[in-house]
Amino acid sequence: MKKLSLVLSVLLLVGMLASVSEAKAKVTLEFGHIQNPGHALAIAPEEVKAMVEKRSNGQVKVNIYPSSQLGSAREMMEQVTMGTLDMTCCDTADWAAALNIPQLAVFNMPFLTKDLATQAKLIDGIVAQEVPKMLKDSNVRLLMTYSNGIRQPLLKTKPITRLEDIKGVKMRTAETPLYVDIWNCLGASTVTSAWSEAYTLLQQGVADAVEADVTGLVNQNLQEQAKYLSKIGHLGAIYCVFINKDKWDSIPKDLQDIIQKSALESQKKQLQNRQASDNAAEKAMAAAGVKINDISQKERDRMKNACQPIYDKYEKNYKLGGLIKKMLSLNS
Fold first, then answer.
1. How crowded is residue 28: how many other Cβ atoms within 10 Å of its Cβ?
2. What is the dihedral of CA 178, 179, 181, 185, to 10 degrees?
């Protein structure tokens, strides 16, 4: 009788444990972004997905929607703030406009970082510390930060070799206030659009040029429409993945730890691999007949000086002079 009672107790305990296991929260994360498959910012989220799903033994499922399937960058940022989309990856200057937190754009100031190595230091150190402070009163949370390279202009009819070459160029740029301000300061005539429209605008002559990271330019096959890449390095694009805060808070702590660990590993790997991605893109451009030219440091300094009103704005209006100085010191 005692043996039967013991067996029944064990079976009851096993049943209770199974019920607890079944009741344990299953989490589905919806992640949308604008990049096409094969882009550095499309590969990295897929790697996060694989790590999270494996480490959580399937308790977390990540659904990824690339190529603007869920809308433009602005639309997806709005969806994340409202909670209808869990995550998206966007430029900090875009997030600044979408969240009405203008200070976030400071990490994409013109001519702030000279190369990808300097940008990686900025992301690993300063961005990781400062962005969460800026998001304190928002409904989103920083999950990871990626490099989207150093942005360069690709032109149809002529290269840029000096500041004066930019005057009057119809430059397609993102619908981002900071980007528009940069090209206005440099003397261009800006044409704003969603990224998915860049090829058509160049093809139809609505724009004389486009600007983006070289990986992104090749990923959109823009080398088919323009033949001069001028490496002025006007902006180091820093892309943050923000997750809706209510969604994050609803995830059990053990699963949060898995997600965060995987995210930071993905960030580290993406920063290490970014240079190789851009090098391959430059080779593809050269093979397509694109002429690639560097500009002198003297001309780059002239361009930075032309953008001084932007620096003045962020120092005066948002009291970010100390932070800007700290970021610029990384170049030394």
1. 10
2. 140
